[in-house]
Each structure stands twice: as C-alpha cells, then as structure tokens.
Amino acid sequence: MFNVDNFQSYSYRRETESLSSVVKLYPLHNYSVRNSDREDPPRLCEYRQSLKLREDFENDGLIRTVQAVLMGHQNSIVHVLLLKNGAGQTEWSKLPTLTLYPGEDEIHGMKRLLMKVMGFQNESAEAICRVYHVVSKWWRPNFDSCIYPYIPSHITKPKEMIKLFAVDLPKYASFTIAKNSLLIAAPLFEIYDNTHEYGPIIASLPHALSRSVLHLQSILFT
Predict the structure, then answer these.
(1) φ, ψ for residue 188 (rounded to 5)?
(2) Measured between alpha carbons, how far is 218 from 73 in angstroms, rounded to an integer?
(3) Which family would the database say this protein is a member of (predicted)?
C-alpha cells in the first residue's frame, strides 16, 4: 500500500545531499547530435493519455517518471537541452523522459534514460550518473494533465511522481536521438515563466535551478 508520508520521508533522506549542488556546464559547441533509426511514438491526445495513465496505475501502482535536465552554455548564458517533436500546431518540446519499471531504482532509470533516449553507451551513462542533483519533484493527483510541485492536501493516492535530475555532462559528447526528434538548446531567459510554450515543469526550471551553483566551464585547450 502506497504511503505518501513514508515515501516522502525516504525521498527526503535520499535527496538531502543534493539540495545545494554545483553543476558543471560545458560549451554547447562541444556537443554533436545525430539521429538514429528509432522513432518516438506520437504524442497521445489527452483522452488517450488519461486512459494509459489509469491502466498503468491500476497495473503497477504509483507511476514514477524521471526527467533529465541536461545543460550547457553559450556566450555565458545557460541553456537547457530539450527534445522537440511534431510539426506546426502539434509541435512540442520536452525534457528527456523515461517511465521507471516497477521497483526500479531512480538512478538506474536515469542511466537507462541516457542510453535509450540520448544514445549514450553503458559506460558513459554510468559515469555521468555517479554525480546527480535533484532539481524538483512534481505530482499528478489524477488521471489528467494537471500536475503540481506538491501533493494537494485532499489527495491520498497521487497517480504519478515526476522527478527531475540534473547531471554533469562530460566535456565532449555525441547524442543519438530518435529520427523524428530535434535536439534544441533553450536559454533560461526564454523558458522562464513561459508555460504557454514549454509547460509548467520546464518553465519553472530557472526557479528550481536557482538553489544550485551553475559552474560554467571553459575549454581553453583540446
């Protein structure tokens, strides 16, 4: 039986060391991207997404999702790497995202995310995940699109927990993403409070990241 109080207490103990963190950021031009043969599934309409959430919750209990906050800098401005899918009015941007298996450790899930979604090799993903920073945590109370950075007081069984992790990317990396995706770098000033374009989670990143020290690294020699 899911117990919110016990779960939050456990999560707090796990996250205490990550509340004030230093995140190393490298220049964006150090990174390259290519597309694989894999194709991301199309975005579900709200009704179908609601049905899927209900089915997953009834089968496995609380849905746990991890999202990767991958960052770099350009002209001394912090950028967040986002995946863009769709076209025209159906176009949307998202953080690299993965739903955990039942009982799967979150950091193992982050490693799997980096391999499956961003195309890292096993050794690289494991090295990246050795240092991580909990950025924020969001809750979905019901089987709809509404999410909150807290559990509403009248909710005893939230349906989904979404946890954001920032990791230190290596100095150089090559990303391999789905063939129907684009990798874009969005500056913090563009996503700040821009819920219309990016949704509440991404739009709140400048607030959430303010508790971390973002250390911009310069590569003087190669």
Answers:
(1) -60, -35
(2) 10
(3) Belongs to the Nudix hydrolase family. CPSF5 subfamily.
